[in-house]
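Take a specimen:
=====
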Amino acid sequence: MKILNTISPVFLLLIASILSFYFLSCKSDDGELLYDNNLTPVILNGYNVSNDNLTVKFDTTTLGNIDPNAKFAVRRLFTFDNLSDVSKLTILNQKNNEIILEKIIPNKEPKITYNFFYLDGKFQDIPQKSDITPGKIKLKYLFRPLLTNTNKPLDIVFGKFYFTSKKFVELKRYSNLKPYELSEDITLDTLGNFEVYNGIRQIVQLKAYLYHAGTSEFYTKENGFNWPPATTIPVPSINVVSSKLYIFSEKPTGENISFNKNLEL
């Protein structure tokens, strides 16, 4: 009995090593793991940019649930029988168990990868942000007016906000942002965090306002919401080189407007 107790952990470790070697072999030259011929890696990546809870299934296996305005990423190993050459990817809306996506995927590939982007009831290609440019801030936006339901084009007005003076000074305007459509590239210069304004050295922040197209009037005025000077749609730091893609929506804060950052890439 003492001998068995001594050998047991070593034996289990040996078995685990053998199984590990059986399922996953060594790495290839490019660093990818090589899988046993009977096992296929299934890699799913996606974004749920909606207010719905979703469920993802691969054939009869539930891979997971996706919260509203959240990212989904899963990697699993599957064994496929020889009865079928394809598998089915299904995405359901938990609210009514409605199937919102069915995708037939060949399962004879060495690796199965599928990416999806769900935006307010529609599947689209995953949007891409711009490459980093030295000394610049690169931005793209997609606006979801879920509160005001405005369908009018708007201007994004970027400016320096002097923290002590509560003063907004316009830097650049992007014209005709259409709701639920991705903007073109917007490029700004990086700036320092401090400047002298009205004789006072003060913090400078990057802010972005939404005006009616071609005006300096907040689009929220006709909807009964105030826009306090410190309010902004999502923006990065003013002094850091970056490239960002923001999907954002409205939310009320009393009688004031504010914004939810639904997704940042």
Observations:
- The chain has two domains: 33-124, 136-264.
